[in-house]
Write a structure and sequence with these properties.
By secondary structure, the chain is of the alpha+beta class. The protein has 5 domains: 110 residues, Beta-Lactamase, CATH 3.30.450.20; 107 residues, Beta-Lactamase; 199 residues, P-loop containing nucleotide triphosphate hydrolases (Rossmann fold), CATH 3.40.50; 60 residues, Orthogonal Bundle (Helicase, Ruva Protein, domain 3); 54 residues. It has 24 helices and 19 strands. The strands form 5 sheets. Strands 2-1-5-4-3 form a 5-stranded antiparallel sheet, with helices on both faces.
């Protein structure tokens, strides 16, 4: 061996010379052989890379650093021994020249051995300067750290810290649970980019607008109660948070953010708002219903009784009895003042909907631009003056009956929407796209000839047929003159009670005079006449001598053929009432709650009728 090799062989540490370009050992001292468990000759014949086969990338980077800098250190590289063990090494290397050849000299140290030695040396040193004092201080810091960690771990709110550049410095378990991130995934990341990057609508949340980052400029505490942090899976989490700046010697070095998930509170608030809106709507609905009921009371309606004994009145009473238990749409026609609304109220009172109100709409009295709002309601802001949500007549009548008086006055634009509600039970409020469903029975009344209007194109023909399911004609007073005595007595009694006058008497001669008049204003004209004469009367008798009327003998006016119910209409009416009764009783014929009882006929008669009409009751079961 040369002098240099002798010196290396006697060195107090394991050393080796390698040729990095040829990947071979040039010289190995005995301590290196002892460390690796090889004979010198066996090790010389091995490639350097074969000994560092599990750390080749690190070895390559390390040798490049030595060749570039002239020397380098590494403390996380492993080498394989003769018996296959892996030893972690600390290597100190430098470039050396031998015979004009550039080699690398390696000083190999067993890292575990040296770490144990250093720990022992440190222990000796601390013992020398007061081991007990050092242990006490160390324990104090350990206790403080442990206490802080316990507090952070036990906190129910999410807590994280950020440095002055917005990078996360710590994240507690509650924050991990709420955000779905692990602490190690957020540490050193820009926390705004990770969890606070967007608004609830998905638009970018500029970091300059972030209250947390604003604290780094002015040092103010920020409390925010309506923002979102973003979960790792991409969903927004409603939060409220407090951001407190951290000062160090008067310098802002970061902030601590304490936040909580308020999803449950937001959901509860949303449900409460919805419930309050529903309560407000129900309140408004009840107020409207109460107004209609008060109106009925104040006007003294008696829907259970239609005054008269004439055949015309008996026919109307029979038709009411037939149609009331069904849900069929009824069209009441007749001149003004004949009592069409009284018929509608009698139908509603005799139906199973009488626990709900009858909502009346005078189609002729509603401004055209408010028709849709009046029928279907509107939402706040739908048009100028719509400062609150408003229920329409259909919603108020849900479960009850809607009486459309003067339906012939409906504008063409609304007729189609009314037809849709009648067919599907669906509509939308003005200014809203939500489709609503209602269960409303419709009774319509008109003094106009809708069939003629439909022929002229001024009334939708399909709406006419939809309204004319069950027609009832309210006959004028001139066709039921025999009812004038009863009507006169009824109005006389009601008027005297209302005016707090003793009940007046009326003579037969006066009744005959009333029956000689044509009554173009029908029953309403008669009622107004009685009221006026009660006011003018003196004594206990009703005096009609001063009437400014032109009395003419009443002509015997009978309904024309076109006004009477044809045989075809009668058959259709019987078929429709049978269908409605079977639908209402779900196909049941017998018993008190059967269709036969509902129609007032024998079950055998109903069965025979169904057979003739070709009606299969199983379709209604």
């Amino acid at each position: 061996m040369t002098m240099n090799e002798i010196m290396l062989d006697q060195a107090p540490e394991a050393m080796a010379l390698i040729n990095p370009w040829q990947d071979r050992f040039v010289f190995i001292n005995q301590l290196t052989c002892d460390l690796l468990g090889w004979d010198r000759d066996e090790l010389i014949n091995q490639r350097v890379s074969s000994c560092f086969k599990n750390s080749l990338p690190s070895l390559h980077v390390f040798t490049q650093a030595v060749l570039h800098k002239g020397s380098s250190l590494i403390d996380d590289i492993t080498i394989t021994t003769a018996d296959g063990r892996e030893i972690e090494l600390e290597i100190n290397a430098s470039i050396t020249s031998v015979d004009n050849q550039q080699l690398i000299c390696l000083c190999l140290r067993d890292r575990d051995f040296y770490q144990q030695w250093r720990m022992h040396a440190n222990a000796q040193r601390h013992h020398k300067f007061g081991l007990l004092q050092w242990q006490r201080i160390h324990q104090v810091f350990q206790d403080i750290e442990k206490e802080n960690q316990l507090i952070l771990s036990a906190a129910g709110e999410g807590i994280y810290g950020v440095d002055a550049e917005g990078r996360a410095t710590f994240v507690n378990p509650a924050a991990e649970r709420i955000l779905g991130w692990k602490a190690e995934e957020l540490i050193s990341r820009n926390i705004h980019v990770a969890i606070h990057h967007s608004h609830t609508d998905g638009s970018d949340y500029c970091v300059h607008d972030c209250p947390i980052f604003a604290a780094f400029k002015d040092g103010a505490i920020r409390r925010v109660d309506d923002e979102v942090f973003w979960h790792r899976d991409g969903r927004p989490i409603p939060v409220e948070y407090t951001s407190t700046p951290i000062m160090d010697n008067g310098h802002l070095v970061g902030a601590v953010v304490i936040f909580r998930d308020v999803s449950d509170r937001k959901l509860a608030e949303s449900k409460l708002r919805k419930a309050l809106e529903e309560v407000e709507q129900l309140k408004h609905k009840l107020e409207l219903e109460n107004a209609y009921l008060q109106e009925e009371i104040s006007e003294g309606y008696n829907p259970h009784h239609i005054v008269g004994r004439s055949p015309a009145v008996q026919q109307i009473a029979y038709q009411i009895q037939l149609v009331a238990p069904t849900v069929a749409t009824v069209l009441i026609t007749g001149e003004s003042g004949t009592g069409k609304e009284l018929i509608a109220r009698a139908i509603h009172s005799a139906s199973d909907r009488n626990s709900r109100p009858l909502i009346r709409v005078n189609c002729a009295a509603i401004p055209q631009d408010l028709f849709e709002s009046e029928f279907f309601g509107h939402v706040r802001g739908a048009f100028s003056g719509a400062v609150t949500d408003r229920l329409g007549r259909f919603e108020v009548a849900d479960g009850g009956t809607l009486f459309l008086d003067e339906v012939g006055e409906l504008p063409p634009g609304l007729q189609g929407k009314l037809l849709r509600v009648l067919q599907d039970g669906e509509f939308e409020r003005v200014g809203e796209s939500v489709t609503r469903r209602v269960d409303v029975r419709v009774i319509a009344a008109t003094n106009r000839n809708l069939r003629q209007l439909a022929k002229e194109g001024r009334f939708r023909e399909d709406l006419y047929f939809r309204l004319n399911v069950f027609p009832i004609r309210s006959v004028p007073l001139r066709e039921r003159l025999e009812d004038i005595p009863l009507l006169t007595a009824h109005f006389l009694q009601k008027t005297c009670q209302r005016f707090h006058k003793p009940e007046l008497k009326v003579s037969i001669a006066q009744i005959q005079r009333l029956q000689q008049y044509d009554w173009p204003g029908n029953i309403r004209e008669l009622e107004n006449l009685i009221e006026r004469q009660v006011i003018l009367s003196r004594g206990d008798k009703l005096v009609l001598d001063d009437l400014a009327l032109t009395y003419e003998p009443a002509q015997d006016i009978s309904p024309t053929i076109s006004e009477a119910i044809t045989e075809q209409d009668y058959r259709h009416l019987r078929y429709q009432t049978t269908i409605d009764a079977l639908r209402q009783t779900k196909g049941k014929l017998y018993g008190d709650d059967g269709a036969a009882s509902l129609l007032g006929i024998k079950p055998t008669t109903l069965a025979s009728r169904m057979k003739k009409m070709g009606i299969d009751r199983s379709l209604f079961a």
